[in-house]
Amino acid sequence: MAMNDSTIERVLLWMVSGLAGADLETACIAKLDVDPSQVGSVIAEARKRLTLAAEYNRDELLGTALTRLNDLYSRCIRTQNEAKALDVQREINRLTGLYRQYGLPAAGQGDSEASDELAAVGEYLLPLRLTSENYPLREHARLAARRIAEMDAGAACELTDSEKPLKTGDVQ
Prior knowledge:
- The protein is built from six helices and no strands.
- The chain is mostly helical.
């Protein structure tokens, strides 16, 4: 059987149902009479369509979710339920990525040495989970500094060689 839309759609449905790998190839050959030399291209086309559908549906679902949240926000404001309205607004902000404006480039991918340095600092501070990763790096630094200042000044604090600060010219 030649590669046509109904063949691709059937393979796509099998993929969504969890059929994969050799089982998917065998089903294409046995149940759809796909030539063994074309099985790879049939599966690749089905995978391509599945990927396109997922991207389209994600945008559609995001739009639906935001519409519903905006409607819910309006209802909360009308009923003077400010606490719930604030919760809804936070969810809108999260979905739209408004908190991500403080994201850092990975070390070595910045536009300058300063941005690379900032990314490196973030790699040390963020795993400490001092606050939400959505907060600006300066807030993580402020909380880390406060924790250090709160440590008992009389407590012995022995650092291992790997924890000691590097001097200019030292190799890590």
